[in-house]
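QA checklist item 7 of 12: single-chain prediction sanity check.
[x] sequence parsed
[x] length recorded as 154
[x] structure emitted
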Amino acid sequence: MVPDLRVLVVGPGPRNDGWAYVTAGCWAAMEKDGHGLEFVMTSHVRDRRFIELMVMIAYYHCGGHRLDLEHSMPIGEPWVPGASCDHLLISLPYLHGPDLEHCSVPGGHARILWALPVTTAEIEFRRRHGHEALEQLFDEAGMIPTDPFRASVA
């Protein structure tokens, strides 16, 4: 499905104190007219678990589900053991700034979207009230997106 898939692991830097995990290969597998998607996830630690989640996202996306902005996907288990987040919400890469979202690649353009771990209750809230309303709740609650044990905002 994603023959050349790689997951890039980027350590903490001057803009962000978390670890970033970025797919590389979704674009090539799914591009249309030179445009396609890649995904980024941010974590508080470096852990192989997040590489596995990025592979899961790539296979879900390239396996027929075609993720895009404001979509979600079930993980089927907690983000990390003991966490309440068991879904991923596809959003803009707010933690990394707008420069990360658009990336030129040979033969086209990749849009990099954020895979944000969320709870089932947050997904249900989004279905009833919309994506923007959920993001507003995140802002109002001061949610820390890299905290695997954060409380649900919904």
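[x] summary fact logged: The mean pLDDT is 91.
[ ] second reviewer sign-off
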